[in-house]
Amino acid sequence: MSGLAALWLAILAGLSLAMIALWLVQRRTGNAAIVDSGWAGGLGLAAIAAGLFGDGDPWRRVAVAVIGGGWGLRLALHLYSDRIGGKPEEGRYVALRAGWGNRAQFGFFLFYQAQALLAALLAAPFLLAAFDAGRAPRSTDLAAVILWALALGGESLADRQLAAFKADPANHGQVCRTGLWAWSRHPNYFFEWLLWCAFALLATGGAAGLLAWAAPAVILFFILRVTGIPPTEAQALKSRGDAYRRYQREVSPFVPLPPRRRAGA
Looking at the 3D structure of the chain, how many domains does it have? Predict the structure, then answer.
């Protein structure tokens, strides 16, 4: 068995055990959203493990550990403070719990394990880059680090702008149209996807580097079609009604673009 395959299996096993622990936590707390924070943190730790135990160029291994680990741990902390610590369970998990009924805990156990497998598969860019022995830094390596810095800055800014908006009681029940949120309805998702493009770019120069681009493709599919924009907008329409419908008409759903002129403006 190759070193890359052995490390991938170790990462998968570690993620599976971590998700079992988090499943036990949600049984006690009744908040299944802990899986989101655990998923991000697990991927961050997978990147650090790849950087530590890969046998590729040392510069690239450090880059993998820093950009992958830094991204994952920051996101895990943000998700925990924003959605989990002292917060009620998110609507999508409430709906799953209600839909599964008496089999909810079994359903969540399988769901958490599926998240562990998905995280292990998405760790491919980190592993491919960490086992790339080609001399670094290449131009693609430098471009990846620059893109990562820009995307992380954009995502952090979007998160801060939304948090500041929510913290003002006068904005309760309103639609955030501050800063980046005036140009994209989901700037956090857009910059998150760019981060995954940076991870793939870091692995691109290796022998199997093009496989790394499957990760941002999968992330984009989930954002646009599954767990990202669709449930988020469904909940926003339910809670904000016509104000959010107007926001949908006037602001780009994903890529930041100049907003359309408001009717009557």
Answer: 2
